[in-house]
Specification:
12 helices; about 40% helix; binds thymidine-5'-triphosphate; binds magnesium ion
């Protein structure tokens, strides 16, 4: 692969994500050791994550909660609030998509971004990394770390390198990896690491020293991957999220059949807001409405725009206009739904440089 063909990939990972969300929700927790996971009184269950103050006591993800409680009896123990974490995650992913629509989300708090084209916009990738972290912090109040290199695996290792709120740009993957412990490689867990240590493999450079044939002989295809990675020859590329959802929709069945138009309109409004929050970097051309009466007769109507839109007002106005037709029908309604179709992905948006 030539220099010009190489992609530049960023890996963004939020810092102690669940705990950071909890501190955002309740700022009086700032500076205190916080552990999110099972109840310490339940006798079973594990730690989901711990913040840096709690990690100082040895508490970490997947540890039995009873062990965490022994290490840190004075910590703040909280049960996970999944919907709040998801809400923040959606916001973060939306910000990342606004930077590059060539993006792959890999978990609730991490994503890869292809940032190759930004070499022309920013002085260097360090500046771009700082920009991304500041943008996330400004818009969500949460901190992330970022690794930037020519491969997904190296960027993932790099994003861990300088946590929290750290930027790590890797120009020379082989050199960056060489002195690092083999345990930093995703996929080398406790058991594999112990086995490799017994074989004299401690640092990533040891994969290079042992040689390609040795690595293939001992670990098969995975060994070859590890050998190539250690030599800085990993070009794992990101799987872009395509516009796979050609439509987004939401429906709501009333608890009891409804004939109060104010209540029906209010429900439609709520559905419109929800759909708008899920649009991310898509625009729509068509808004449809679905009405199911108490006798299960179902009718749909739609309205298309000449120019694609992404505003909440255009969803609301179209939905209200479509609803008018049904107001005169004197039959109670069982279900209402709204759908946005003809979705178009918006290209990289103009970056706002005002966070500097
Ligand atoms: P991670 O990114 O692995 O951890 P983290 O964000 O808490 O900390 P770091 O700063 O080191 O990145 O995981 C993201 C979230 O996923 C984490 O906040 C809680 C959840 N999680 C679990 O529920 N169980 C687990 O074993 C791990 C590793 C994470
Ligand atoms: Mg994280």
């Amino acid at each position: 692969m030539t220099e010009s063909e190489r992609k530049v990939i960023a890996h963004v990972d939020m810092d102690c994500f669940y705990c950071a969300c909890e501190v955002k929700k309740n700022p009086s927790l700032a500076g205190k050791p916080v552990v999110v996971g099972a109840s310490p009184y339940a006798g079973r269950g594990v730690v989901s994550t711990a913040n840096y103050e709690a990690r100082k006591y040895g508490v970490k993800s997947a540890m039995p909660i009873s062990k965490a409680f022994k290490l840190l009896p004075h910590g703040v123990y909280l049960r996970p609030d999944g919907s709040f974490y998801k809400y923040n995650s959606n916001q973060i992913m939306k910000i990342l998509k606004s930077i590059s629509d060539q993006m792959q989300q890999v978990s609730i708090d991490e994503a890869y971004l292809d940032i190759t084209s930004f070499s022309k916009i920013f002085r260097n990738f360090q500046t771009l990394g700082e920009y991304v972290l500041k943008l996330i912090k400004k818009k969500t109040g949460l901190t992330a770390s970022i690794g930037i290199s020519y491969s997904k695996r190296v960027s993932k290792i790099a994003s861990e390198h300088n946590k929290p709120f750290g930027v790590t740009v890797v120009e020379d993957s082989k050199q960056f990896l060489s002195s690092q412990d083999i345990g930093v490689i995703p996929g080398i867990g406790k058991v594999a690491k112990a086995k490799m240590n017994e074989m004299g493999l401690h640092k990533i450079h040891d994969f290079v020293k042992k040689g390609k044939m040795y690595m293939i002989d001992k670990f098969g295809k995975w060994g070859l991957k590890l050998y190539l990675l250690a030599n800085g020859e990993d070009y794992s590329q990101i799987k872009f999220q395509k516009a796979k959802n050609k439509s987004i929709s939401k429906e709501r069945t009333f608890i009891s059949d409804q004939d109060n138009w104010l209540a029906i309109k209010e429900t439609v409004e709520k559905i419109c807001s929800k759909l708008h929050s899920q649009l991310n970097n898509f625009q729509f051309k068509t808004v449809s409405i679905k009405i199911r009466y108490n006798d299960f007769t179902t009718l749909t109507r739609d309205l298309s725009f000449k120019v694609a839109s992404n505003t909440i007002d255009s969803i609301r106005q179209a939905a209200n206009k479509l609803l008018e037709e049904f107001i005169l029908v004197a039959k109670p309604i069982r279900l209402v739904g709204v759908k946005l179709t003809n979705l178009i992905q918006v290209n990289d948006r103009q970056l706002q440089l005002n966070v500097f």
